[in-house]
Design goal:
By secondary structure, this protein is of the alpha/beta class. The protein has a single domain (22-246), classed as Alpha-Beta Barrel (TIM Barrel). Helices cover 42% and strands 14% of the residues. It is built from ten helices and nine strands. The protein has helices at 2-21, 45-57, 65-69, 90-101, 123-131, 148-153, 155-163, 165-173, 189-197, 235-246, and strands at 26-31, 61-62, 78-84, 105-109, 135-138, 179-181, 202-204, 212-213, 228-229. Strands 1, 2, 3, 4, 5, 8 and 9 form a seven-stranded mixed β-sheet that branches. Helix 2 (45-57) runs parallel beside helix 4 and helix 7 (155-163) packs parallel to helix 9 (189-197). It is globular. Bound molecules: zinc ion. Residues 84-85, 139, 143, 183 line the site of zinc ion. Zinc ion binds at residues 84-85, 139, 143, 183.
Length: 248
C-alpha cells in the first residue's frame, strides 16, 4: 500500500509539473507599412508602437520567428512580429519602434522590387536591417498569386515565385532565406510543394483569423503555418482575444 501511495504521489507531482513543460504557442502577426496612409493595412508609426506596448502590458513576450519555429517558447503568451513587402517605412518602424523595445522581427521581401522604386527598401537598407538582427524571408519573387486559381491558370509563374527569391535574396544579403511567406497569404497545394522543394524550412499563410500555433505540434504543416494580418477592421478582435488569453 505504501508503495502504491508513493507511486501515486510521484505521478501527481509529475502531473503538476506537466503544464510548465507543455509546448508553448505563438501568435504570428503580419503588418505591412507605417506611412499614415489611408489603407486598412497601414498604421502611423506611433499607432504601431502603441499596439506593441499594449501587447506587452497584457503580459505577452515578443519572440523571433527563428526561436518560435524552433519551439523555443515558454507558455501561451508569445507573439512574433512579421512585416511583409519591404515598404520603405519598415526602416523607421524597425529603428524607431522595434529596436528600442528589443522586439525581433521577420521581414518578408519579394526581391524583384528591391531598389526598383522609392516606395521600397533599398538593397543597402536590407543589408543594414539584417545586420541589426532582422530575419529576412522570401515573399515570392515579384509578388504574384500562388493560389489554387493561379496554379491552374499559370503554374509556371507560381513555380517562379517559389524558385527565384532564394538566390536573389542571398545575392543581396549574403544569406539564403529559410522562411517563405506566400504573397496574398494563400497557397495552392502545388505551390506549397514547390516552396518546400526550393529548400525552405517553413512557409506562412496569412489571413484575418487569429490563430495561435504550436510549432512543435506534429500535425502542423510546416509549409502552411497561419499568420494573422493586422487590418484596421480586425484589430479589435485581435486585442479582445489577446486580453481574454491574458486572463483577468
Ligand atoms: Zn505581400
Amino acid at each position: 500500500m505504501k508503495t502504491i501511495r508513493a507511486v501515486l504521489a510521484i505521478a501527481l507531482s509529475v502531473l503538476a509539473v506537466l503544464p510548465s513543460l507543455a509546448a508553448g504557442t505563438v501568435l504570428i502577426l503580419d503588418y505591412h507599412s507605417f506611412l499614415g496612409a489611408k489603407s486598412t493595412l497601414d498604421y502611423p508609426i506611433a499607432d504601431f508602437a502603441a499596439q506593441l506596448d499594449r501587447m506587452k502590458a497584457l503580459g505577452y513576450t515578443f519572440v523571433s520567428l527563428e526561436d518560435a519555429m524552433a519551439g523555443r517558447l515558454v507558455g501561451k503568451k508569445n507573439i512574433a512580429i512579421t512585416i511583409d513587402d519591404g515598404n520603405h517605412s519598415v526602416m523607421a518602424a524597425v529603428e524607431e519602434v522595434l529596436r528600442p523595445r528589443g522586439i525581433p522581427v521577420g521581414l518578408f521581401i519579394y526581391p524583384a522590387a528591391i531598389g526598383r522604386s522609392k516606395t521600397v527598401l533599398t538593397a543597402q537598407q536590407l543589408v543594414t536591417l539584417q545586420s541589426e538582427g532582422c530575419e529576412i524571408g522570401a515573399h515570392g519573387y515579384t509578388h504574384q498569386y500562388m493560389t489554387p486559381r493561379a496554379w491552374l491558370r499559370n503554374r509556371k509563374q507560381v513555380l517562379r515565385e517559389a524558385s527565384l527569391p532564394m538566390a536573389a535574396l542571398a545575392k543581396i544579403t549574403g544569406k539564403a532565406p529559410s522562411v517563405f511567406a506566400y504573397p496574398y497569404g494563400v497557397a495552392a497545394p502545388g505551390a506549397r510543394d514547390a516552396v518546400r522543394a526550393a529548400g525552405y524550412a517553413w512557409a506562412f499563410l496569412a489571413s484575418e483569423k487569429v490563430r495561435f500555433v504550436d510549432p512543435t505540434d506534429p500535425a502542423l504543416n510546416h509549409w502552411a503555418v497561419p499568420r494573422t494580418i493586422v487590418y484596421h477592421w480586425n484589430r479589435r478582435a485581435i486585442f479582445k482575444l489577446l486580453e481574454a488569453r491574458a486572463g483577468p
